[in-house]
Design brief:
two-stranded antiparallel sheet, single chain, alpha/beta, Arc Repressor Mutant, subunit A, 250 residues, Rossmann fold, 9 helices
Length: 250
């Protein structure tokens, strides 16, 4: 389950926020987590840092609200760490305001990319991600979604995306084998189970994981609708962040 507990310390501001973000170890961890959620052992491998040091600095970043954790849906003993994009955005804006730096909003050209998005059922999270990436890139990104055990498009996924003006009603669930001949540049898994089951595309330049709780697993109808909206909004943040990385060549 997603760790939604409040941070142990108040979010830092000004010079304190700058010190937090410019520590070399924490910067390396944030850079590693920026595009993809990862386990501690993966961060250790990526950064070459000792596990105790990685865990210590992850704790500081969690206290500041910049990093969140999610217990894997595939194996509750496994924990994924991910960046909180809203918190990072707030820090960025706070530093700019403190230093009176103007922010400009400009749309940069996106590279032509083909993206495959996977989850287990291809009923909700992957379908919403497909809709967001296609819409937010204005069709520049070619995106397809599929599942390792496909079922059908969840009606609440269609409903909550319609609420924000994105039509995915024409989508349909399909097995990952249907995309076997595709040559994607990026593969994104949006559920932990699919990450363990999904095939590897050797030709894919990048393989990313977003550890998003399954809204369909929520039983109470009112809570389930809220869960779908929360997943929709987090997936939008992730999609916006990913497109920003691609637009800057990162």
């Amino acid at each position: 389950m997603l760790d939604s507990s409040p941070p142990a310390a108040a979010a830092p501001g000004g010079a304190e926020a700058l010190r937090l973000l410019t520590d070399e170890t924490r910067w390396r961890l944030l850079r590693a987590l920026r595009p993809s959620d990862r386990q501690v052992n993966e961060l250790v491998e990526l950064t070459g840092l000792p596990q105790n040091l990685v865990s210590y600095h992850l704790g500081l970043l969690r206290q500041a609200g910049l990093v969140q954790l999610h217990k894997s849906d595939a194996d509750a003993r496994v924990t994924y760490y991910g960046v909180s994009l809203p918190a990072l955005t707030a820090h960025y804006a706070q530093l700019g305001a403190a230093l009176a730096i103007p922010f400009t909003q400009g749309r940069q050209d996106l590279p032509a990319l083909t993206v495959v998005v996977l989850c287990r059922a291809n009923s909700a999270r992957s379908q919403m991600t497909e809709g967001w990436l296609r819409t937010l890139s204005a069709g520049r990104v070619i995106v397809r979604s599929a599942g390792t055990q496909p079922s059908a498009l969840h009606p609440l996924a269609e409903q909550v995306m319609t609420e924000v003006g994105v039509d995915i009603g024409h989508h349909h669930a399909k097995h990952v084998d249907v995309l076997a001949q595709l040559r994607p540049d990026v593969v994104v898994t949006v559920c932990d189970i699919a990450r363990e089951e999904c095939p590897v595309w050797p030709q894919a330049t990048t393989q990313l994981h977003w550890s998003i709780p399954d809204p369909a697993a929520v039983i109470d109808p009112d809570a389930q609708l809220a869960a779908f909206r929360a997943a929709r909004d987090e997936l939008r943040q992730r999609a916006v962040g990913l497109l920003a990385l691609w637009a800057t060549g990162s």
